[in-house]
Amino acid sequence: MERINPQGPPPNYLLWAILTTVLCCLPFGIVSIVFAAQVNSKWDAGDYEGAERASKNARTWAWVSFLVALAGMLIWCIMVALGITAGIWAGAFNF
Q: Residue 57: CB partners within 8 Å, gap ≥ 6?
């Protein structure tokens, strides 16, 4: 017996996946795009659970992409601050 789901398809997060790919972390963003692209096709094929899983995976990988980029920026800022501090202590800057 085929399960009928009266709700619409789950969100595919495709826009978010594309934005995190372009603006954040390319490898994890691509994974998010792949899962986002699967949502509607699985829904149309009647694989409602698969569409839900793909939607959740697309959202998860978009978050991973965003958080990796955020961590990278934070590490970069810390390294710049440490470099400036080391330069000041070494007398590299003439004030």
A: 32, 35
HEC string of the chain?
CCCCCCCCCCCCCHHHHHHHHHHCCHHHHHHHHHHHHHHHHHHHCCCHHHHHHHHHHHHHHHHHHHHHHHHHHHHHHHHHHHHHHHHHHHCCCCC
Report percent pLDDT > 90 for the chain.
82
pLDDT (tens digit, 9 = 90+) per residue, 38-55?
999 999 999 999 999 999
* Sign of the CA dihedral running 78, 80, 83, 84: negative
Reported as a single tens digit per residue, the pLDDT across 13-30 is: 999 999 999 999 999 999
Query: Which backbone phi and psi does 26 adopt, to 5 degrees?
Result: -55, -50
Residues 49 and 6 sit within 8 Å (Cβ to Cβ): no
Q: Does the CA dihedral 7-16-30-78 come out positive or negative?
A: negative
